[in-house]
Structure formats: C-alpha cells, structure tokens
Design goal:
There is one protein chain. By secondary structure, the protein is an alpha+beta fold. Helices cover about 35% and strands about 20% of the residues. It has 5 helices and 6 strands; from the N terminus they run ααβααβββββα. Helix 3 runs antiparallel to helix 4. This is DUF1801 domain-containing protein. Pfam families: DUF1801.
Amino acid sequence: MKTEVTAAVKTTAKAAAKPAAKPAAKAAGKPTAKSPPDGKPVLLSGGNPQIPKRDGDGPVQAYIAAMPGWKRDLGRRLDALIVRTVPDVRKAVKWNSPFYGVEGEGWFLSFHCFTRYVKVAFFKGSSLRPLPPGESKDPNTRYLDIYEADEIDEKQVGDWIRQAAELPGWVP
C-alpha cells in the first residue's frame, strides 16, 4: 500500500511540474510574443530579420524580404549573384542569417544585417585570391562589409563566390 501512495504522489508532483498546456490561441495561428500582430518577422538589433531555422530557398527569400530599406535590394542582388555563379547552390536560414553551400560540401557563405551595413562572410575566405578585405577572429573566415553608398564590384564578388563554392565548406 505504501508503494501505491508513493507512486501517486510522484505522478501528482510530475504533473504539477509540467508547464501548462499551450493556449488554443497559438494553435489557431494567433500572434505570439515572438511574432508581431502584422505577421512580419521581428527585426533584431541592427535590423537583422528573425527567421526560423529552415532549409531551402523559401526561408532565405523570407529573410531577404524582411531586410529593412536598402539592405533588401542588396540581399536580392547578392542572392541572384550567388545563384548565377553557383546554379545548384543549397540554401538555408541558420542563426538568423541566410547560408549558401554545396550539397555534401558544407557552407561557403552567409550574410547578416547590421545597423549601417551588411556583412558577407566567406567561411574559407583566407583561401580566396585576392583576400576579401575584412579579417575575422577565425583565421579561415574573411568578411566583406557593404554599406549603403558602396558600389559592388560584382565581377570580384562573383569570383570570390565561385572560388568559395569550389572549396570544402564549413560544417557546423
């Protein structure tokens, strides 16, 4: 009999420790604390869109569509340049940034919105020639920071993309 009472107490204690069931409003697609009422993605510090981690072109296009102001056009240009240069490119959104890679080879590039610029990360950028200008704490990674007034040398950026796609990529 003592065993039955102990089992009942443990079950009751477990039930009390569990979080309450999710409200029906969330199941019905109503806004949550993380999604504003208008359904648009939340912009994090620097205007970086908060997009759920997912593979595919759809999440990347959602990220680009949510980029604020001039950065949206830049995101479209970068995405189009990457697709032209690496037609079979693999895409995903991870850590609130679009990632580009080659199937089975890892990721070669990502970009991220900051307040005044967009940072393009070449994960094996130290192997690119000429070197992309921005240094990183990671000796392999190099950056290209693009500001609103900057003219993009699409030939050079496209060459870096091509070179980066030919290298073994970064695998998290």
